Amino acid sequence: MTTSRPEESMSHGDAITAPFWAGAREGRLLLQRCARCGAHQFYPRPFCLACDHDTLTWEAAAGTGVVYSRTEVHVKVREDLVPPYTVAVVALDEGPRLTTLIVDGAGDPGAGCEIGDPVEVLWRARADAPPLPVFKRSA
User: What pLDDT score does 11 carry?
Assistant: First the structure.
């Protein structure tokens, strides 16, 4: 498995997820890809979900996809997320799905979306951790 520089590898997450977070710091959405079967996967794991092989590399994703599922949250669970806001499962163009926050063009929560809407990645800064991938509707 390809990893980041040793001094960065454990600054957030664990040995398996550290390359993802290193990419996030650089504004790159990284996915694992199996060297044997070519399948992409997210979230990071020590083996391929498609063929159980353990030779995985990290590749930059296009950062685009479509809304697979969505829900509108009306309960305040964090100080930085004022309801209502939209949480969605995004099917990335490479195949994996990830759960994310839908934001407006300025990166603020509260934007809506519909199933099937095209979306693209933005990065939501956090004070104590690498940025999180969030998505906004594409034109």
Answer: 63
Alpha carbon distance 74, 11 (integer Å): 33
How far is the first Cα of the chain from the last one, in angstroms, to the nearest whole number? 36
Across residues 73-83, what is the average pLDDT? 90
Question: 85 near 72, Cβ under 8 Å?
Answer: yes
Whole-model pTM over 0.85: yes
What span, in angstroms and rounded, lies between the C-alpha atoms of 16 and 36? 19
pLDDT digits (tens, 9 = 90+) for 42-61: 999 999 999 999 999 999 99
User: Reading across the β-sheet that carries 40-41, which strands appear in turn?
Assistant: 40-41, 30-34, 56-60
Q: How far is CA 43 from the centre of its chain?
A: 8
Nearest Cα to 11, choosing from 2, 1, 24?
24
